[in-house]
Amino acid sequence: MAPQLDIQFIRLPHGAGLPVPAPATPGSAGMDISSADAGPLAPGERRLFRTGFAIAIPPGFECQIRPRSGLALKHGITLPNTPATIDSDYRGEVQVILVNLGDAPFVVQRGERIAQMVIAPVSQMALK
Q: 2 pLDDT band (50/70/90 cuts)?
């Protein structure tokens, strides 16, 4: 089993009351992320949703934001740039770009799980 990686987490004021990202089950690779925003997403529309938190990823790691398979299968809701990468030197709010590839409008509710995040090691490289 890999050692636990401690990530600094800051709850932002507009994220008050939302759950802290957490794995859904003990075997989950990712941590579910809830939306701090609510609103409609029309078919074909892309929109940025805030999460109400910021994290500090240690050097040598990245945070990958991935779609939730249930939203993709049931409603056609996914990420247009998946996996999205949050670099180790980014300190702003984690935000998720969603796109509606379905044929019906979809309404994101505040607190709804909209994506998952995975912390992964990255290799530094130099091209020669």
A: low
